[in-house]
Give the backbone structure.
Amino acid sequence: MHGTLFFVVGPSGIGKDTLLNGAKAALADDPDFVFARRTITRPADVGDEGHLSVTEDEFARIHDSGGFLVSWSAHGLRYGIPVAFAEALAQGRNVVINGSRAAVPDLLARMPNVVVIEITAPAELVAQRMRARGREDAQEMAARLARVTPPLPDGARAVVISNDADIATGVARLVSALRTHGRRQRPQPVRSTDGARALRAKLAGEELSEEQYRVLLGEFVQRKHSEDDLKQFLIAATRSLSIAEIAAIARVRAEFATAIGWDEPIVVDKHSMGGVPGSRITMIVVPIIAAHGLAIPKTSSRAITSAAGTADAMETVSRVDLDRDAVRRVVSVARGCIAWNGRLNHSALDEVMNAITRPLGLDSTRWSVASILSKKLAAGVTHLIVDLPYGPYAKVKEERAADELARLFREVGGALGLNVEVCPSEGFAPIGRGIGPALEVRDVLDVLEQRPSAPQDLRDKALKFAGRILRWAPGISSEAAANARAAQLLASGAAKEAFERIVDAQGRRDPRVMAGALTAPVLASRSGVVAGINGWRIAGIARQAGAPGDAGAGLDLLARCGDTVRAGDALYVIHASRPAELAAAAAEAAGDSGFDIR
């Protein structure tokens, strides 16, 4: 049994602290609820929450020794929740945390059963409350009110509470949400249903039919089975799924997503298994393919643990929250789109499954293939190319594992009637120079505009994948012809024009988000050759700078693998929009820059 972790977020002036204090008082006699006391690097006599005050050095020691369940930086301060509260969760109690939106992705990646409670209120009411409390001057108030609230990560379980009435009403709404979503998940007996019989068969190691999966997964969505039943099923599914079962699950999963139909003989798509920072080739490949005339309705995710997802990057120049009708309209006008998949591919089944697989750390390649291909089926894709990087910092670690995953994609794709091509490639280093949404888009535009500063590795990889896709286009007779066509569309400016059409059709963001104005260089501590770059590490530093929530934050790489550097040379430049985040990222980089210099 595991309690619910409630992470309460909301911008300054929204009234979050007032509601939390009221809820804490209302639930004081309920043993199922624990309100976490925060550790903060600010004086004990500031604020009214009764936090534990520590110095920067004390906070760093606690953090480095693993003493925090979750921690974050905001407004020049550091916040932490003691790891001791994990014991309350393990006992089945519900822990309520006064949190920050910036910490949500890390929390979702590491903790089970998280519910994000988002406090909102009309802007004019927030301004009124900020004036009443008198903490900020007029300039600070204006800056806070002007901040754009980034969306929550894909798969986050969120409850929105509007604090637009009196305090008693707001507290009652919060208490109701906590009680509704925080009841203990006590196992229920497996009911005598068709799904229950299918579940018992799978737990016994039997192969299930498509109809059995349709019934069983439907019952999971309807909450007809306990959380323990779902865990057992997912564990069993990671051990044994035949090709026929993977295809069956993909077809059933597609039925839970938003389906898009096309009056097109060929609808192409590209998917990346990810893990390589800066590899934003989708934003180059899509306009090249659209410029040729093939339909390419690309939907992409936001970042969860990386510094940017394709949707985060595209959002710096245009809208990405498109629904099915908008996707069809954009593709009819521009032959392609680059949209966020949260409004299209995410389903009730995803919510149920993600709530279990992430906390358990289940990473079944067979289940992942079913999930990915189900989304392509729902999107009406006929031809798919998969970018499959492997390396120590990629999601797939070894070449042999990449080859096995490629075979699985092809076999399941064939069973589904999809034409799937998979391209394993070395993913030992970042692609491009920018790490973070705006910086990665800068690289994309440099390539599309044929600037001398364009990263050659990003250009080459994009052309490689565009050429592979164009092999499917009618009238292109060979690999050489496909590669030449891709290069010609890029060199002529046709791809850049196609990109602009896509941006206009989706809804241009003018001006586009630029790199953060605050910068700090990270210098080499020794002379030598850059032997490697730790992708996880530099992505983490970019996130400390504020990426992806702050789309202008990130890193600009100046040195690459194989470069010779001298002690004191700049390896990269950190970009941020706020001094606190810049300082946090610089401190993180000072401990370990992520560069292996030998």
Observations:
- The first helix runs from residue 16 to 26.
